[in-house]
Amino acid sequence: MEKTQAIILAGGSGNRFGGILPKQFIKIAGKTVIEHTIECFERHRLIDSILIVINPEFYDFMNEILLRNNFNKVKKVLRGGNTRQESSYIGINGCDEDTEFVLFHDAVRPFVSERIITDMIEALKEYEAVDVAIPAADTIIKVNDEKIIEDIPKRQYLMRGQTPQGFRLPLIKKAYEIYMKNPDIPLTDDCGLIVKYNLAPVYVVRGEEKNIKITYPEDVFMADKLFQINSISSLEIAKDNEQYIKHLKDRVIIVFGYSSGIGKEIYDLAKSYGATVYGFSRSNGIDVSNYTQVKESLDKVYKKEGKINDIINTTGILGISKLQGMKQEDIIEQVQTNYIGSINVTKAGISYLKETRGSIVLFTSSSYTRGRAMYSIYSSTKAAVVNFTQAMGEELYQEGIRINVINPERTKTPMRIKNFGYEKEDTLLSPRQVAIAAIDTILSDITGQVIDVRRNMPNKP
Questions:
Q1: N or C: at which end does the chain have fewer Cβ atoms within 10 angstroms?
Q2: How does pLDDT run across 197-235, given as a tens digit for each residue?
Q3: Which of the listed residues 229, 262, 284 is the one where a domain comes to its end?
C-alpha cells in the first residue's frame, strides 16, 4: 500500500492579515485555524503521517498547540524558509524515505474535505502530479498597465487553484533540485514547478467552493459561518463485527430516548456488540427536561458499574404548526425536550465522563441550517443544539471529553410516521444506519463536529 505524507505549510507571517498573530493561529469555532486543518488530515484513513512546516518565530507556539491535542499522525514540526518554495523544499527533505505520495496543503484552508483528499490520492496512482481546482465562476479579463482590457480568455478553460497539491515524491524532489539552482523564478505554488520544467502532466481534481483560503480579515467572518454549518459525512472506525465487539465490549453506554426509533436501535446495536447499555426515557420515568431525573439516573449507573464511557441523547419532539396556532405549553415542551434536554444530559454527564475521557452524542436535524415555515420551534431548537455542541467541543476539550452531534436525513421513525404518514422506503434512512453512525462517532476521536448521515453512505455490519 502506498505511503502518503501530508505537508502542512504554515510559514505565513500575517502581514496581509494585519494581525499580531499569523492567520493560521486565529481562533475560529473554538480552535486555531491550523488545528482545524490538521484534523482534516489526522482523521483521513489514507494519510499515514503529517509534517508541519512553520514560521520559525512560532515554532515553540506550534509545539504548545500540539501538546494540548492528540494528533497521532503529526510526526515532525520543521522550521520554514523565507518563501513558500523554501518551505516546501524543507518539507520534502523531511519526508520519510519510503514515502510514495506527498500532499502539500495550506494551513489556512481548514475546510478541505475527505472527498478531495481521497480523490487526490487515488489520482496519484495514475498521475505523478495532481492539482485541485474549481471552475472560474466569473468572466476573467486580462488588462495592461493602463487597466485597459487586452483579452477575455474563454472561461471554460479557466479554473481557480486550491490545495492540496499532490506529487509522487521522486518527481517533486527532482523539480526542487532544479529550482534550487535558480530560486529567483517567480512561482506561487508547487505544481507551477512541474509545469515550468515540463516534467509531467498535472491532472486536476475537482475542488470545492467551501475549500476557502483565509487570507484577509473578512475571510474570518466567512470561515466562522462555514464552521457553523460544516459537517463530516462519514467516519472510518470499524470494518466488521469483530472490530465493533473489540471496541465496545468494555464500554458502559447510556442512551436517552431508548424506547423507540433511533434510540432503540442504538441501544440494541451497542448491546449486541457486547457493551453494557442502560436506557432511559419517559417510558421508565426519566424526562430529559428534568435535570434532577437525568442526574439521578446517571448516578445510579455509575454506582453500579463504576464508570460511564458514553452518553447518547436521541430524545426529541417534532411539532408542525404555524407559531400563532401553537399552544404555549407545546412550545415550551419542544424547547425543554429538544434543547434544554441536551443541556441537561451534557451537564449531568461531565463529572462521570472526565474519569473515562468519554463522549457525548446529541442529535440535530437537517432543518438546523435554515429555519422553515411550520417548523419554527423545532428548527430553532435543532440549530441551538448544533451551536451548543460546537461551544461545548471547545469547553470540554481540556477535560478530554468529546461531544458531537448527529445530523441524519429523513429517517423512518415512529415520530416521523406519526407526522408524515406513509413514505416510500427508499426515500428514508433506516434507524440502523443512523445507529451505526452514532456508534462510529463514540469510537472516533473527533469533537465539536456535525456528523451527516446520508442514504448513499456505505453500508456497514
A1: N
A2: 999 999 999 999 999 999 888 888 888 778 767 766 656
A3: 229
Query: From CA 121, how far away is CA 46, in angstroms rounded?
Result: 8
Cα gap 321→33, rounded to integer Å: 41
Residue at grid coordinates 503521517:
49
Provide the 8-state DSSP code for 367: G
**pLDDT, tens digit, 9 for 90 and up, residues 35-56:** 999 999 998 999 999 999 999 9
> Residue 235: inside a domain, yes or no?
no
pLDDT for residue 304 is more than 60 = yes
Do 131 and 266 fall into the same domain? no
Residue 13 grid cell: 507571517
Q: Quick one: which of 130, 230, 147, 241 has its CA closest to 189?
A: 130
Q: Are residues 225 and 285 in the same domain?
A: no
pTM for this entry: 0.74
Q: Give the three cell numbers for residue 370.
A: 435554515
Residue 143, domain CATH: 3.90.550.10
Phi, psi values for residue 374, rounded to 5°: 80, -10
Q: Are residues 215 and 361 in the same domain?
A: no
The grid coordinates of residue 162 equal 486550491
Number of alpha carbons in the 13 Å side-chain half-sphere of residue 216: 1
Q: What does residue 9 show for φ and ψ, rounded to 5 degrees?
A: -90, 115
